[in-house]
């Protein structure tokens, strides 16, 4: 029997990875003599994985980035980033307690991220929490990635979850668009890496702390989406 499931985005939602992403991005930018990015600029670059982050950083400087150079920089980024894991990355305050609340209520959990799968897996392992997720699915897991809704629905299926009893938690337009396209309620955190207020993208609910992510809230969202589907 498939179980109710809560699916988390990773960077900027479950784990604050910004300091380490920024360090690795700047390592790459220094290698090609481009100015380093600051924490504010990072919000404009993250959300769709390291490859897109590099492309956006180059575009911000009006610098062309060919396929060969992109592949070289991706290898450099991955080498630098994985060597330092977990670095300064850490779960957001209250995130693990929220996860425990849903586990105690009978939910399973999964991660659906545009990070490469092996990087997401390693990060969660070095943080000591990988075993809490039935599936950890990245940008390269299925051949499609967020905002394609199949990334989310295939993650739910791999975890053994019930897509009709599924909740997504994310921090960006990408996460919100993915969940809405899949017909799944989405809770947006307002402390992540979105460069625009997440309210702008019409999530099912916005929270300011993981203390606000409760089982009654989840059940309310599931009843609402079921009612929409029936009407």
Spans of at least 5 consecutive residues whose pLDDT stays below 50 are: none
Helix content: 40-55%
Query: SSE order, as H and E?
Result: EEHHHHEHEHEHEHEEH
C-alpha-based Rg, rounded: 17 Å
**Architecture per CATH nomenclature, i.e. the level-2 architecture of the largest domain:** 3-Layer(aba) Sandwich
**Number of beta-strand segments:** 8
Oligomer class = single chain
Biggest sheet, spatial arrangement of strands: 5-4-1-6-7-8
CATH H-tier superfamily of the largest domain: HAD superfamily/HAD-like
Kindly identify the CATH topology of the largest domain: Rossmann fold
Strand content: 15-25%
Shape: globular
CATH class of the largest domain: Alpha Beta
Distance between the termini: 26 Å
Descriptive overview:
With 231 residues, the protein is α/β, with parallel strands linked by helices. The protein is built from nine helices and eight strands. It folds into two domains: 3-16 and 90-230, HAD superfamily/HAD-like (Rossmann fold), CATH 3.40.50; 18-83, DNA polymerase, domain 1 (Orthogonal Bundle), CATH 1.10.150. Strands 5-4-1-6-7-8 form a six-stranded parallel β-sheet, sandwiched between helices. A two-stranded antiparallel ribbon has the order 2-3. α6 (117-126) links the parallel β4 (108-112) and β5 (135-137).
């Amino acid at each position: 029997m498939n179980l109710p499931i809560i699916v988390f985005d990773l960077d900027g939602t479950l784990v604050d990875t910004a300091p380490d992403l920024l360090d690795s991005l700047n390592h790459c930018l220094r290698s090609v003599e481009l100015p380093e990015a600051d924490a504010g600029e990072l919000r404009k670059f993250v959300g769709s994985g390291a490859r897109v982050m590099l492309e956006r950083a180059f575009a911000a400087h009006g610098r062309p980035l060919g396929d060969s150079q992109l592949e070289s920089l991706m290898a450099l980024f991955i080498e630098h980033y994985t060597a330092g894991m977990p670095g300064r990355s850490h779960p957001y305050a209250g995130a693990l307690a929220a996860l425990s609340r849903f586990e105690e209520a009978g939910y399973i959990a999964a991660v659906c991220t545009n990070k490469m799968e092996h990087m997401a897996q390693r990060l969660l392992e070095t943080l000591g929490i990988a075993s809490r997720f039935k599936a950890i699915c990245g940008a390269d897991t299925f051949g499609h990635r967020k905002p394609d809704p199949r990334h989310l629905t295939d993650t739910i299926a791999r975890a053994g979850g019930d897509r009709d009893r599924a909740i997504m938690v994310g921090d960006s337009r990408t996460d919100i668009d993915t969940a809405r396209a899949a017909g799944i309620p989405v809770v947006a955190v307002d402390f992540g890496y979105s460069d625009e207020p997440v309210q702008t993208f019409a999530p099912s609910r916005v929270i300011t702390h993981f203390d606000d992510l409760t089982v009654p809230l989840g059940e309310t969202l599931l009843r609402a989406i079921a009612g929409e589907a029936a009407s």
